Amino acid sequence: VSEETAREMALGALRVPAVSVAVAVTGIAGPDGGSPEKPVGTVWFCVAANGPHSKELITEHRRFAGDRNTVRSCSVQHALSLVLRLSLG
Angle at Cα 58 formed by Cα 41 and Cα 30, nearest 5°? Predict the structure, then answer.
């Protein structure tokens, strides 16, 4: 669960020839698995795209409150908002 992990996951997906946009999410949705440094609700995101001249990346970190389903739902919504932000510039 780190920025580096999310980035490598997204960049790895971009290596597939048919892929132009990749989304990677890594986190701790709970109810177990958290630590003081990375509590439950910690999520890292990376959205990557093959741009006309280089790769475009957005990485972000969020902490969502709530149970496992809430953390997962918030993560999906945030990932989709990052895709929109990348595509709309």
Answer: 15
pLDDT in tens, 40-79: 999 999 999 987 778 899 999 999 999 999 999 999 999 9
Largest Cα–Cα separation, the chain: 42
41 C-beta neighbours (distance < 10 Å), count: 21
* Token pair 């509590």: residue: 39
Give me the long-range contacts of 28-37 (CB less than 8 A, separation at least 24).
28/1, 29/68, 29/71, 29/72, 29/75, 30/67, 30/68, 30/71, 31/67, 31/68
| Cα–Cα distance for residue pair 15/70, rounded to 1 Å | 32
Structure tokens at 79: 């990932």
Listed in sequence order, the residues at least 6 apart from 78 whose beta carbon sits closer than 8 Å to its beta carbon are: 43, 45, 60, 62
